[in-house]
Amino acid sequence: MRLYILKRLGIALLLLLAMTLMTFLLMRATPGNFFDALKMNPQISPETVARYEHLYGLDKPLLMQYGHWLANILRGEFGYSFYYNVPVTHILVGRLGNTFILSLTSFLLTWLVAIPLGVWAALRRNRLADRLLSFSSFAAFSTPGFFLAMLLLYAASQWGVLPLGGMRSPTYDDMTALGKILDVGAHLIIPTVVLSLASMASLQRLMRANLLSVLRKQYVIAARAKGLPEGQVIYRHALRNAFNPMVTLLGYEFSGLLSGAALVEIVCSWPGLGVLMLTAVRAKDVYVVMASMLMGGVLLLLGNLLADILLLWVDPRIRYGKHD
Amino acid sequence: MPAGAAQNRYGGQIALYGGQLVLPATSDPKTFNEIVASETSSSAVTNMLFEGLTTTDAFTLKVIPNLAASWQVSPDGLTWTFHLRPGVVWFDGKPFGADDVVFTFNDLIYNPDIPSSSRDVFTVDGKPFKVQKVDDLTVRFILPVKFAPFLRGMSQPILPKHKLEGPLKAGKFSFTWGIDAPPKDVVGTGSFYLDQYAPGERLVFRRNPHYWKRSDSGDVLPYLDKVVFLIIPDADGRLLKFLDGQLDYADLRGGDFPLLKPLETKRKFHIYDAGPAFGSNFIAFNQNARANPKTGKAFVDPVKSSWFTDVNFRRAVAHAIDRPKMIEILANGLGTPQYGPMSPSSGFFYNPHTPSYDYDLDKARQYLAVSGFKERDGRLYDSKGDPVEFNLYTNAGERTQIAAMVRADLEHLGMKVNLLTLEFNALVAKLMSSYDWDAIILGLTGGVEPHFGKNVWHSSGQLHLWDPKQDAPATAWEKRLDDIFNQGVQELDEDKRKVLYDEFQTIAAEQLPVVYTYLDDNLFAVRDRFGNLKPSAYGGALHNLEEIYVKQ
């Protein structure tokens, strides 16, 4: 098992390398660079722009720039942002935390609601409750997140209880510790609900389908035939097997923790990575984009690794297969 | 000495101290370092903190004293002596003086190791100004040649030597006062200092107790205790928060007007229309007749080039654009058609008598007929029988709507226009280096001082969009524009300058190297509880922030 994990880690590193190189080349293959915006300013001369480009090494060969970046990464330095003139890490760290909080709450809400809901729907297959649930799932699934966010914000402005976007109230600094938590919590409600709803809908459908297909399996019939109580049949035998594909999915969802919220963040003015990344890509602030790619990539690979390990743990068939 | 204190149409009021004003910001500042800052979200913050020797009166648009109390100029117009305002102190209590001014220019702006966009404004014919300290409160500037926009340029913010000399010597100036700096470390002389910055959330400014300015009745300014910027990237989000009362100010688009106007009394705010804005949107045609040195082929297809360089073709386009409809649809009727290169809000130098082009397809067809264009089965053909078809580029965003309407208008003349939307950087690459474009819809910011448009109008300028960086002017009218800009910058008599720049605006409107569309009105809403609001087209609602107070 240790060998297996090591092998996976090696492949993961290679993948990361390829990913960053691709991003770098793509960013640079498209026309223009960060300083183009300066060129459109009537009061700035071409010499000044050239001076900027030289200072930031944009006049060097592409691969040399990439090599330079890579060497710095190995030393733990993520480079400087063109836009902000400060180390990339200084810009990212605070926002990373904010996005993580939002993603984590919606991740938890999604899974904690969708899984039981899926099981519940599967056990009431084709009854009214199941029909209603699948109807609302499709409705939730097909509503664009940013639109839903706007609707909820508008409703909040009429209703006057929930805050209209942002992460903290202006009076945050004067609050007690508990007050601070409640304040952020209140601000979290709208974006969390919006972010969870769509993935909740699809996850619930998946869980339902998985369980239904397992319930048709021979061993379930056998378990029932030998007179096991229905609860044990479902929770002990069927559910564990129905859950396997969900574990793989969990790994993928892990990578979405940092990247999935951009639009909703913008609409709800949540101070996360979303706006920052969007501006960075559009303005070609290369090293900010590279750093976020790297983080997203690490999370994706970590998530997959985690899922594989989890699978080893929940599914004995895989475990024994590997040991042969 | 020119213009004294501001004379405006609003009287002073007896004001109260305290309270706060909450403003929206569309995005985070990128830096607090004034010299390195190059875009509006940063300068919105640095403009709060730093001041220049002079500033522009928001109503008369004349240059008035700021950190300098007065100045003299030598008869030859080359030596300017500034007498600094005594008693001005930095946020940290250290006195402001001549050393700071000399440091800002000689050590920062003219420093070859610091990339600064201000340097270009203060370099005339490739030569810098000489900046010398006479005594603690007197500074002398010696110019290499006469430079008419000099005084206006002296609004350049002054930075504190005692805070920045250290980082400069350590070679770290460009990275000093980044957004990771402790807010109170950013030391200026403005009416408010930066107290707190929460990235992606807000900026909090507090009253500078040492501020030098007094009201007409002798009150120590500013009146407000606190100014807060809430960072809200989404335009609709800003509007919601304004209606909800969490914001005290909102910039409005024409389309917001009918939504907000009925709520004015109930929600206690007022909408101001400060007149035409400064930013223009226009269509330009590629008149570059040169060939690509790498391939030997012309940048522009010679067939298309023959249309684009034909002034009748461009005049036909100018007549075919339905500006009133554009204003009605895109700005909800709150805009002004634009024909010449300067905004009516630029005041003194604006020439209202330039040729104008009303929406008239018959006149457009007449211009086309003069040059031998013919319409057949709803399609337009040139004198050689080639169908008129070209690509129209623009960047994603609000400009696509303008572009779509321009296209529809030009199709009425039988032109086939292919609309292509690109990312801004890709568009700039086309304009500045590859030159492979036919027509483009773009905007540029404008201002009060015509000389600051030199890079657009002088034939050697890289922003001379339609045919940039020419070695010698390609046409007689471009030659005349070159002469006007070369003379205008050396002419210190304002009235003589005005004659020159009036001619520039007339030539631009006659020759139409760029065909203007319309100017949006500068619209904003402010909550009623504030006093001393004196909105102007140039300064907006908040140019006199230090005088604004909360009514009881």
Task: Report the oligomer.
Answer: heterodimer
Order of helices and strands of chain A: HHHHHHHHHHHHHHH
Radius of gyration of chain A: 24 Å
Task: Write down the overall geometry of chain B.
Answer: globular
Q: Bin the strand percentage of chain A.
A: under 5%
Main beta sheet of chain A: none
Would you tell me the structural class of the helices and strands of chain A?
Answer: mainly alpha
What characterizes the major β-sheet of chain B? 5 strands, mixed
Distance between the termini of chain B: 40 Å
Key features of this structure:
heterodimer, A: 324 residues, mainly alpha, 15 helices, B: 552 residues, alpha+beta, five-stranded mixed beta sheet, four-stranded mixed beta sheet, 25 strands, 22% strand, disordered N terminus
Describe what you observe in this structure.
The complex is a heterodimer of chains A (324) and B (552). With 324 residues, chain A is mainly α. Chain A has helices spanning 2-29, 36-39, 46-55, 62-74, 88-123, 128-142, 145-159, 177-215, 218-225, 230-242, 244-255, 262-267, 273-283, 286-314, 316-323. In chain A, helix 13 crosses helix 14 (286-314). Chain A is globular and about 85 Å long. The model of chain A has no long low-confidence stretch (mean pLDDT 83). The longest helix of chain B has 18 residues, at 494-511. In chain B, a hairpin with a 6-residue loop joins strand 2 and strand 3. Classes of the chains: A mainly alpha (324), B alpha+beta (552).
